[in-house]
Amino acid sequence: MINAEKERGTFDMFKYCEFYCEQDVNVLRVGFGAFRSVCLQEPINMDIYNITTVPSLANKFLNREVFYPNGNLYEISGSVKEYIMGAIYGGCCMTKNNKRYVVKDKLNDFDACSLYPSAMNRLFTIEGKPEIINECLIDDKIYDDNNPHPLLVRAFDEDQTEPTKDKDLSYFVVDIEITNVGKSRDFPLIVLRDENGLNRNVNETGFMRVDMIALQDLVKYQNISYKILGGLIWKGNRDHRIRNTIRKIYDLRRVYKKAEIRWKKY
């Protein structure tokens, strides 16, 4: 620590800035070295000297551990990718019922841990290529929880890995028209995009593009009535190895999290 103090309670700004910048770089150096040593060990086994970003590290790791070993997974691009991306809305950012609140009491900020890994621990990858939904599955009928669409009837169960006679759809992405909302929620699952492309979480009817899980949730938690307008389906196997892989990473995180807590005590 340098002495940057001057007379009468002042300090040398340039000396302090020099020390601050040196410390900043030193902390980055030590942190990078510690992170690299972790990545060189099991289960990651990668040298981050050859990787420029954390997303790139995650992508390389999942390619090696999850995607490439299967041998029957397909990368997507072009119009198929664009269509599927239309069912991705991002995180929900809103207050209760989208209203303004003036809160003067103390708030408890609940910060949930590892939400993405928690979801991946229940997810899967899908083998094979998508197919366009057959016209016989598209009609003008209105479906709901008591009268589910054949796509939901034929959808895999959560832990199912191979198609059966009755459950032969491993995944789908579809356009739907929501004709009725049976249950209103303070934080709705229904997301409608306005003319500016902004997401609105609302208890309203309208048009959405959803995947299998989103449609199941809309029916279960908001009791919607809906029409299927078209989309893509997959009939291949589900691969669950992503669950064990993300569990290993999560358990490793817990180990280092505990080490951080012990360090902070000193």
From TrEMBL:
Q: Supply the InterPro entries for this chain.
A: DNA-dir_DNA_pol_B_mt/vir, DNA/RNA_pol_sf
A Pfam family it matches: DNA_pol_B_2
Q: Which reaction does it catalyse?
A: DNA(n) + a 2'-deoxyribonucleoside 5'-triphosphate = DNA(n+1) + diphosphate
GO terms (BP aspect):
DNA replication
Tell me the domain of life: Eukaryota
List the transmembrane segments. none
Q: Which GO terms describe its molecular function?
A: DNA binding; DNA-directed DNA polymerase activity; nucleotide binding
Record bears the keyword Nucleotide-binding: no
- DNA-directed DNA polymerase family B mitochondria/virus domain: residues covered: 2-136
Annotated EC: 2.7.7.7
Q: List the keywords (alphabetical).
A: DNA replication, DNA-binding, DNA-directed DNA polymerase, Nucleotidyltransferase, Transferase
Looking at its record, which EC class is this enzyme? Answer: transferase
Q: Which family does it belong to?
A: Belongs to the DNA polymerase type-B family.
Give the protein's recorded name: DNA-directed DNA polymerase
Q: Organism source for this protein?
A: Trichomonas vaginalis (strain ATCC PRA-98 / G3)
